Task: structure prediction
Amino acid sequence: MTATTTPGRPSAAAPPPRPRPLLTRRRRRALLPWALLAPGLAVLGGLLLYPLGRVLWLSVQDYGLDNILSGETDYNGLDNYAELLSDGYLWRVALPNTAVFAVVAVGATVAFGTLVALLLASLRPLARTAVISCIMIAWAMPAVTGTYVWVWIFEVDRGIVRQGLEAAGALGPEGLNWFADRLFFYGIVTLNIVHHGFPFVAVTVLAGLLTVPRELYEAALIDGAGAWQRFRHVTLPVLRPVFAVVTILSTIWDFKVFAQVFLMPGGDGANREVLNLGVWSYLQGIVQRDYGSGAAVAVLLTLLLLAITLVYLRSLFRDEELR
Amino acid sequence: MQPRIPRTAAVLTALALTAAGCGGGGGGDDAADDGLQVWIMEGTNPDATDYFEAVGERYEEETGTPVDVEFVPWADAHDRFTKGMAGGTLPDVAELGTTFTPEFAQLGALADLSDQAGDTSAYNEALVEAGTFDGGLYGMPWYAGVRSVIYRTDVFEEHGLEVPENWDELRETAVTISEEEDDMVAFPVPGDAAYSVMPFIWGAGGDIAQESGGTWEGGLASAESREGLSFYTDLALEDGVSSTGAATWKETDVQDNFVDGNVAMAISGSWTPRAIEEADPELAENLGAFPIPGPEGGYSPSFLGGSHLGVFEGADTEAAWAYIELLTGDEFAQRWTEESTYFPGKQAQIEALADSDDPLVRPFAVQILEASRVAPVSPKWGEVEGAQVIPGMTQSVLNGDATVEEATETANTEIEDTLNQD
Result:
């Protein structure tokens, strides 16, 4: 089952080769990969596992500024989690804002990115290079800059969208503060995220598209398949692992969106209807100096992502095995 | 409490600073070993490097100890103190936002300066109150800033308007401007600016919270507070003198729009005229200011912000105090006022400015002397600010998500819960 074509991070979860108690030479051979992996594991352990463990440990403490000063711990069991899970705000606002938004944003990013990839695949090399260079600009834009540009475009009183809608007669002279409305707010965040995220999908899917054997399309054409049927029955099955990777990665990115929400008007806590788990964790932990609760929210977010990734990977591998 | 491990700490700090690209620009960090370490905030003040070099030189002349000043951006300030506490790298002397002082004092991170300061009656009362915790003085008043109304004199002249002297006049003036000037926001009602709504709550006779017998009692749900909030939000909702977008504006958005020429009058800090002048000298020629009027005349109290100087526990208090004396002493305090346009901490120095000829100084000085207040002096107030309780309250009314009654009730409960938690 380890024989998968999936590249990228998830393969880190592959189980270690099991050395059989045999000749020392074999054993030494079995140890060699570990020796080679050791530096990487040490770095991962220091940079990833230690902070992860620290956040877990923080999340079971009532940890405030006084603890930081004194260095004392204050274990309180699962109190932070109990409080978090019994908070109506989590279920009514923070979780839907995170999960529903992520589903929409991932769907839109992957769909749009795939369309752009199909366009790129049909272009001549020169035109393709030109278009790829253009979409790279969107990719290269830092999240903070991109967010400010979107806020500026949607500026309530004088922004270009406001002026356009007013000129078209779709908006009255009093305007509409879309930043104050949860749906509109996340509509703008989605635009921002899709704009920033689609180049990655487009380039990755394009790389996959170029590996699909031409004969498959020719055979489908002879069988009388239209464009949609060729995509549905040839491209999609062949590129399944590629789609799995871009979907998982986009899901992880879109679940932990921070700057794109925090920097929007009202997104830094003044309008509680629009906070997501990431921003909420920051406000609870760092701003309100309740590091324990903030850590608990962060752990919850991590567990959610782990669960989603596992489900994706499982479904991917199961299908591979079935075929 | 702050065991200093000079060499390790210095090496680590140096490493951290190198890694962070060392944006300080103040004294050399290599002198961190035995010099007096000072943190000064930056971000709202003009470049203060020269000023602190002069103070440092004088200090070294007098005491023989070098001073190592590090500039910390306001936006990072609280995080930097937190990290300093965690890593044992706190400075000896630091500029503290007035709301930090009770919080750090309660933690035991600050030294009690009552003995050194002695009689503080010469200082501005509100600043002293904000620096006092449990009967001890932990934050020495350094400088103050206050918000009043700034306005466009050219717009007022064009429409024959006078400076409003009560709330009805304020409303009528704003209504006139919004009727006559299509492209202008007459008086923005920013939803994300706590200090812009406080004067109306206080002006109507309301309050945020009062302590009695160790328990905080919230005041936002009182009839007076509600009246103040209603007047403020109705300016936007009923009279239409604000703009739709202002419901999510911060103070910086108000200032940006003022600089762009989109705003006729606005609640604004005493330090903003200088900033406006730098951004647009032409606009600044038509700039006036007046204290925030009271409902029936007089003035509405405005939030008195500013900075304290504090000494961290574990520092040599005498050496640190000598530096504080230098900064708050007449010579350097006056120079600071001139360079930063902030108000000095001593009452007599502020009174002198209330007679100033400068139309952009006098109204603010009057505001400080006649009508200024501080936020509840509680170690937990920082959390209330962090949770954005007051902006949340204002915004929910401006967005139509809650009535004034509902919004004040929610905010009041949150403030009481936060201030009274142990």
In short: The first helix of chain B runs from residue 6 to 19.
